[in-house]
Amino acid sequence: MTFRIPILLALVALLALPATAQSSSDEEAVRAAILDYVEAIYDVQPERVERSVDPALAKTGFYRPRDAEPYSRVPMTYEELLETARTYNARGRDFSNVPRLIDVYDVLDKTASARLLATWGVDYFLLGKVEGQWKIIHVLWQSHTPETMATLRSAGD
């Protein structure tokens, strides 16, 4: 009887390994999709939007100029995001030292959620695994608050 318990425990541990490796791999792929999204905009690479964002994208933001009220609601389509990636950094600003703060909150087999702090604000993502690839399907964002801007600045130090 005592011989069976270690074998049973070993089998349980072995069965858990592939699931853990898959989650780690999926989490890295989710993080890569969000990195594609932000770097497409920073580095004028719209092809990275095509790679990481689903054409059925639903994106809405709450924008406000610095120290102004109120927020304006700003919807964005997939095509508008592609255009943003083509034009946001048309002057060639160097974003290489700007932190890309990505928090992956949850990854299941077909869905994931995450957050990004970028120069323009805070983006919350819902992603889906579409034909084996993680794609951004929903984005809800807002302009920075003083607290989120301080977090972004301190990450760059």
Describe the overall structure:
By secondary structure, the chain is α+β, with helices and mostly antiparallel strands. It has a single domain (4-155), classed as Nuclear Transport Factor 2, Chain: A (Roll). Helices cover 42% and strands 32% of the residues. The chain is built from 4 helices and 6 strands. The chain has helices spanning 4-42, 46-52, 78-87, 146-155, and strands spanning 53-63, 72-76, 101-107, 111-118, 121-130, 133-142. Helix 1 (4-42) packs antiparallel against helix 2 and helix 2 runs antiparallel to helix 3. Mean pLDDT is 87; it is low at 6-22.
Summary, kept brief:
A hairpin with an 8-residue loop joins β1 (53-63) and β2 (72-76).
Instruction: Please state roughly what percent of the residues sit in beta strands, choosing from under 5%, 5-15%, 15-25%, 25-35%, 35-45% or over 45%.
Output: 25-35%
CATH first level: which class? Alpha Beta
Structural class: alpha+beta
Number of domains: 1
Largest sheet: 6 strands, mixed
CATH topology value: Nuclear Transport Factor 2, Chain: A
Please give the alpha-carbon distance between the first and last residues: 58 Å
